[in-house]
Amino acid sequence: MILAIDCGNTRLKWGLHGDGAWRRSGAVPVAGIAGLETDWMKIAAPEKVVVSNVAGESLRRKLMDILSRWSVAPVWAESKRSECGVTNNYGEPALLGPDRWAALIGAWSLRPGPCLVVTAGTATTADVLRRDGTFAGGVIIPGIDLMKRSLARDTARLPLADGKFSDAPPRNTSDAIETGCMLAQAGAIESMFAALEPGAMCMISGGAAMRIAPRLHVPTQVVDNLVLEGLLRIAA
Questions:
Q1: Is residue 187 part of a domain?
Q2: Which tens digits make up the pLDDT trace of 49-67?
Q3: Which of 72, 124, 141, 159 is deepest in the core (most CB within 10 A)?
């Protein structure tokens, strides 16, 4: 069994993989990571543990304490020049976030070919994967909820409210914010997709993936967790 762990800015996602399938999975808020001790008491010791962590050194230490219940040294994913069929064309490959690197590898393993690899969480990333497996670069923008919170925090009269997306021009403030932030996400993704080779696919993952995907006018596939898929290949 392989235990794959994706430590994001807001949530920690994990999956246990064995015999060709994901056997168990879960997610906890980063602030509630201690709850993993109870969750993981129910599973046998994995043969391998592989982790992507973008949540900082403090979380890394806490996770190490929890993982110490098993005598398995975790592999901490790091971006490389080349791995699992993907070539990293970042100016300094090691500076690419391990979550973005794992997502690229996950997308390539599921569908080798030109792809826009999107993860939609606290931030939204859109990374270009060429036909030959080369990561050509990408963009990072605030995620939907981060956009909405910044408007509420930095303006005097815009609320942090739950609006609805509207295909017609919105006629109330909450819907205007929701629709504007959603169109900003879709517009950035579609602009990046336009530079890809023919036959490309947009693969989107993350907590906001199901909200964004219906607004995209490009070939799109929602994947439950591209980072975990990539970590699995890295471990294997």
A1: yes
A2: 999 999 899 999 999 999 9
A3: 124
